[in-house]
Write a structure and sequence with these properties.
Blueprint lengths: L1 H21 L2 E10 L9 E4 L4 E3 L5 E7 L3 E5 L6 E4 L8 E3 L3 H4 L5
Parallel strand pairs: 1-7
Antiparallel strand pairs: 1-4, 2-3, 2-5, 5-6
Length: about 110
């Protein structure tokens, strides 16, 4: 009987540890726009460590992240932006044109 109680206790502690570790990730959502308010389609959003996504037709994105992660937003013709995440669930980003890279674009 004592052995069963020990096994139950170990199982309960393991479940708690798993729940705490898994609970650190959350879903971050947001919208990426230009300085004029226009939604930007296809903005590259990279999470330090390899994963990422792009914005949809309305400039919206969703990404599973952890608190303290670094997130980079990049788009041709716009300045790259990097953010360190806190506990926010929504991160809307306004991207400014990159005047230096616009001079280098050949049409």
């Amino acid at each position: 009987m004592e052995l069963d109680m020990k096994r139950l206790l170990v199982l309960l502690v393991s479940i708690q540890v798993f729940a705490l570790c898994y609970g650190q990730q959350f879903l971050l959502t947001g919208k990426v726009t230009a300085t004029d308010g226009e939604a930007l389609i296809g903005v590259s959003i990279a999470l330090e460590g390899g994963t990422g996504t792009i914005t949809d037709m309305d400039g919206n994105y969703k990404l599973s992240v952890k608190t303290g992660s670094k997130l980079s937003f990049s788009y041709i013709g716009y300045q790259k932006q990097t953010f360190t995440l806190k506990n926010q669930k929504v991160l809307n980003v306004e991207m400014a044109p990159d005047q230096t890279s616009l001079d280098e674009v050949v049409v």
